[in-house]
Amino acid sequence: MDIKLHNSWNYKDQGRWDWSAYLIGSDLSKVDFVEYILHPTFTKPLVIIKDPTNGFRLDTDGWGVFELRAIVYFKDGTHRLFTHYLRLEYHPRSGRTDE
What we know:
Elements: E1 4-13, E2 16-24, E3 31-37, E4 46-49, E5 58-62, E6 67-74, E7 79-85, E8 96-98
Antiparallel strand pairs: 1-2, 1-8, 2-5, 3-4, 3-6, 6-7
């Protein structure tokens, strides 16, 4: 299956980033929805995204990195766990880096 979990980020200030998590790959049309499992310090650590726009993109903010988990539920009734170590990097020249 050609699906991967990725993230992008934009440094805000004072050690905080706006960041997004999303799926990429050629099999996104097979996905029904995604349940993101965030670090337990988030106010809402479980977030369900049903909108396929932009790869079931989750937009949020934070200050630290952790292993992001996403359970991808497929239209055929199956599901699969994906993990991705969240990247948040500060680059003084641009302030933004994407993976």
